[in-house]
Amino acid sequence: MPSPSVPSTAPASRTPPGASTLWRPVVWLFERFDASMTLAVQLVGAIAIVLIGTAAAELLYVAFDMTRLSIFFLAAVLVSALLLGTRGGVFAAFLAFAAYNFTLVEPLFTLQFAGPDDALTLFVFLLVALVTGSLAGRVRESERHNRQRADLLATLLEAGQTFAAAPSEAELTRALSDRLDAATSGVSIVLPEGGVLTERTFAWGARGLMEGLVARGWMDPGLHAHGAWRARRISADEPLGLALWRIGETRAKDVQAQDRLCELLLDLAAAALARSRRAGIEADLEADRRAEPLREAILGSLSHDLRTPLATVLASASSLRDYDDRFDPQTRIALADGIVQEAGRLNGYVEGLLNLSRIEAGQLETRLVDLDLSEIVEAAVRRLPAARAAGVETTLEPSLSVRADPVLLEQVLYNLLENALQHGGQAVRIAVATRRHEDRVEIDVADDGPGVSAGDAIRVFDKFYRGSGSRREGRGTGIGLSVARGFVEAMGGRIGVVPQDISGAGLRVRIALDPARETV
Amino acid sequence: MQRLLLVEDEAPIVQSLTPALQAEGYAVTAAERGADALAAMAMEGFDAVLLDLGLPDMDGKDVIARIREWSEVPILVLSARHLEAEKIAALDLGADDYVNKPFAMGELLARIRAVLRGRERKFSSRSRFVAGPLGIDFSSRIVRVEDEVMHLTPREYDLLRTLALHAGRVVTHRQIALAVWGGAEVVEAQVVRVLVAQLRQKLEADSARPRLIRTEQGLGYRMIEPDASK
Predict the structure, then answer these.
(1) Which of A72, A474, A491, B50 has its CA 20 to 30 A from that of B161?
(2) Does residue A127 belong to any structural domain of this protein?
(3) Cα–Cα dist B106/B87, whole Å
(4) Domain stop point among A154, A189, A217
């Protein structure tokens, strides 16, 4: 989008800077003449202007008997040259010469003249008229030329700024297409690298011709022209795409200049595209660099959390096989217990991974029903090992109902409890509290473990994030809380860490869910 | 009774390894953290250390470096297969060998025996090494395969001696480079590979299927254990 300070190509602002208001109509005239100045217009214009000059002179001659009126004819030549250019000026000079001779030089109303004096006067008049006409015409033309050049620069400047400011490649190519349309008064399409024309564009012209031109354009980087059609790769060196355009009504002598303008526009777009692409690549690399620790964390987590239980299972099972007769019964039972426990842990981990991938894939189906919250909390606590469940204190508001999926909610609570047990340390105490708050039901799961820093508070729900510092100890998988968040959000609730008054004083996770419909 | 220090923070793994190790006649002391391991090392002597690299308080590699500052005790690393760089670093820091997690008990016990024997070899004055068809006389530098004397270049001999001294254990590319080239120049892994290929050509019956010097993919090489009685 052009900013207000940037000169645009709209005709309204074409006035050269500094032109006074007085000159506006003349400039306007220039504009109109410029727009469609053919030879015929120039000739007719010159005749008209000279006729006006002649009429004025004749009037003065008849009315006041004035004789030195050659100035009127010269004025007509000057005006013609200024309005119509050199060609009009020279033509007007000859016309004026004839008219002067015809109307004011004896014998009147003939193209003859009386003596050497008159001949000299007429000859000098013609010379002066020609010089005046061509000089004034040249001034006019160079002025027009300068204006065109200023216009061109303004167009290019504006295009360059627009391209550079384009927020995306799509925006940039659209801006390029707009500029090409404006420059050629035609239509254009910008194809991405390797792109093909679509049905929509075939309405603009012969399909075979367009496709042929595009094919040639892809093959060879220069400008390809066929009739009114042009095609060029945006950049000769880089795979940035190709522009195809059809020029609108353009005078034959301007086509070359227009092609050059279009090529300049393409070059500008190429520079901007290449720049934004490089920036994009750098951003990708940067993202890669940032993602690297995450990838390592995920790999490390998978490797550690799958292998550790497996290591126990494999070592215990092979020990039982190889040393069965040398173990006492307690040892055998302890090893078998280890296998059962670690297989369960493995199962939990795989379950978590599956849940996580279901959340990621958006395949989580929730069955929202009205639930008694206390029942769900108690069910989740009961799933903990008995020794650990003793450290959980519940403060449940009676007859509090939520609208949630029972399976998912129980899993969420279990994950939060397990997380508190894993990260809170050996003697951790956990408090679960439920309450009604405004139009929602809140469940807090708080522990008195090491807590998390403000920085970690945002990240605890990240996949495979296991905390830092003292809370990192323990056997967390970095899955439980992200699954909890996925489940809560799937049920339309929210989950977050409640900032503690004293930092490092445990972790408090709050879930907010909709209450049951009956109680509303 | 030989004493093992098991450095592992996962209690279930410790519980699963201990019975079989004890049944094999080892006394097992477990340490949950690197600091505990170093303290235990300072308090009492161990015949070997089994070390998990992922410890809660410090990097397992640092534990190796700290132990190696003053002790030559055999260190066997328990590590995950994909952490190759970790393993190489651990071996270069002075770990004697590694076992990939998860492992069957038999594999771990075989590795423990190999590192313990390696320590015995280090302190023995035996001048002969015999493993299958291969015989090395360190004092005269004569190498025989099936009783035929093989002519080795000085570098080939240095390589063979290094591998034989660590027989049964993995020797990294860098350790070979240090032993053969003396560490004065940077030696590419590729150069080591070429030298190993030359040696195999002379020693192995089928150098495409080596039996004496085995490749530890991405880590280094391992020579088979010497025959027990010779």
Answers:
(1) B50
(2) yes
(3) 21
(4) A154
DSSP β-ladder status, B75-80 and B48-52? parallel
- Which residues in chain A are closer than 8 Å to B101, comparing Cβ atoms? 307-308, 310-311
Q: Which residues does chain B have within 8 Å of residue A311's beta carbon, measured at their own beta carbons?
A: 10, 13, 16, 78, 101-103
Pick A323's closest partner by Cβ from B23, B54, B56.
Answer: B23
Residue ending a domain, choose from A123, A139, A154:
A154
| pLDDT tens digits, one per residue of B102-130 | 899 999 999 999 899 887 776 666 788 89
Determine, yes or no, domain membership for A143. Answer: yes
| 3-class state of residue A369 by DSSP | strand
Establish whether this prediction's ipTM goes over 0.90. no
Does residue A300 form part of some domain? no
Tell me how far apart the alpha carbons of residues A499 and A505 are, in angstroms, rounded to a whole number.
10
A335 touches chain B (CB under 8 A): yes
- Rounded to the nearest angstrom, the minimum Cα separation between A422 and chain B is 13
Place of tokens 């994950």: A415
Per the structure, the complete domain to which residue A67 belongs is given by: 11-154
Residue B98 backbone dihedrals phi, psi, to 5 degrees: -140, 160
Task: Report pTM.
Answer: 0.52
Binding-face residues of A in 62-81 toward B, CB within 8 A: none
A473: left (phi over 0), alpha (psi -120 to 50) or beta: beta
A152 interfaces chain B, CB cutoff of 8 Å: no
Q: Which residues of A touch B104 (CB under 8 A)?
A: 314-315, 318
Q: Which residues of B touch A322 (CB under 8 A)?
A: 20, 105-106
For residue A160, the 8-state DSSP code is: H
Cα–Cα–Cα angle for A294, A300, A303, rounded to 5 degrees: 140
Give chain B positions within 8 Å (CB) of A340.
Answer: none
- Cα–Cα distance for residue pair A161/A8, rounded to 1 Å: 12
Q: Considering only residues 468 to 487 of chain A, which have any Cβ-Cβ distance to chain B shorter than 8 Å? A: 472-473, 475
> How many independent structural domains does chain A possess?
2
For the segment B58-91, what is each residue's pLDDT rounded down to a tens digit?
Answer: 888 999 999 999 888 999 999 876 677 888 899 9
Domains of chain B: 2-123 (3.40.50.2300), 128-223 (1.10.10.10)
Closest in A309, A311, A335 to B19, CB measured? A335
Here the CATH number for the domain that contains residue A447 is: 3.30.565.10
